[in-house]
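note to self: dont lose this again. the chain is below, predicted strucutre after it. 377 aa total, dont forget to put it in the shared folder this time
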Amino acid sequence: MPTCSFSEALEIRYVEDIEVNPIEPCEIFLVGSFPGRSSPSGRLVLPRTLTLNCCGINRAGTLRKIEELCHDVEELDLAQNELCDLNEIDNVLRYMPNLSFLNLSHNDMKEAMPEQLTRMENLRSLVLNHTHVPWETVCSFLDAMPNIQELHLSLNDYTCIDLPSNKQYTKLKQLFVCGNPISSWNDVILIGKIFPNLESLIMADTRIASVPEPSTWEDVFLHLQTVNFNNVLLNDWKDIDRLNHFCKLEDIRLQGIPVLDELNELERRQHLIAYLPSVIRLNGSAILQKEREDAERAFIRHFLSKNERPKRFYELEAIHGKLDPLVDVDLSPKKTAQVYVHFCEEQSTLTVNLQQSVQELKATLSDKFGLRPTKMR
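---
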C-alpha cells in the first residue's frame, strides 16, 4: 500500500473535490459525522468523528492544515495504518484539544520510543490493540492523558504487565488486555495497584491458571465490578471461590475454562451461580432470584452422592436445609402394552408393540387365531 501523510489522507477522504487554498485562511466548522462538504457560504464542513483507517498514513504532513481542519475533532480512528513514530503521532494529536477517543490499533508500534507527548486533558478512551507498543511508550500515553478512563491493550503479545509500580492512574475505569500470554496473578495484582479505581478488567484468552490466597490481593481491588476471564486456564473450583474476594464483583464472564469441562451446559451455569453469590450477571445474562435458588439447590443435590464435598455445599445447605435427591421419573411414552384378546371360546394375553400399525396388529392376530385380517373389525 502506498504511504501518505495524515493531512493528505484527510483531504482525500473528506475534502474530495473542494478546493481549499492552504495559504489563505478559510472558515471551518464541524458538525455530526458525515463526509466533508462545502456549505453555501463556501465554508468547509467536516465531521467531529474522523475515520481514516487503512489509508497508509505514516506521518503527520502539513501541520497548518491539520490545525485549520481538526481543532474540533472529538473522535479519531487511525487503525491499520503505518504509524510507528510517536513524534508524528503527537504532531497529529496536538491540534485536537477536544479529542476524547483515539484508535491506533494495528499500527506497528513495537519500535516506538517513549516521548513527552502533548497533554490531552479531554482524552477518555485509547485503543492500542495489536500494536505491540512497548510499555514505556504506554506510559508516555498515560502521562499525557490524565483523565483517561478506558484503555485497550489486547493482542500485543505481552507476557507481563511492565508498568512502574510506583505510579498510579486513578481515573482509569476499564482495562482490556485480552489475548496476551500473561500467566502470573502477580500481574493482576500490579494492575490493581496502578489503576486503583478500576471497575472493569477484561482478561479473556490469557494464561492465568490459578488464583492465590485472597489475602495477597483483595485490598487492591476495591471498586472492581466487572471481570472477563473467558478461556483462561483455571482448573480448580477453589480458584472460582476466591473470585468472591473481588468485594464489589457483580458481572463476570467465565466460559471455556478447564474446570467446567466435565459438566454439561446447564450444570456449568448452575455451579458458577452457586459458587458466586454476589454476582448478578453471568456470561452476559442476568441471574434472576428463582434461577439462583434453583441453581443452589441443584448444586446441593449434585454433591449428595459424593464423598468429597466443597465448603460451598455446607454453606448452601445451611441456607436451603437438607434436601432429598430428586426422584428419577421416566415420563417417556410407553412402547409396549399387555392386552387380553378374546376370540370365540379362546382368550390370550399378548404384548403389543404400540408403535406398529393396525395392519401389522391384524397380521399378528391372524397368525395367533387363524382369522384372516379382512374379517377383523
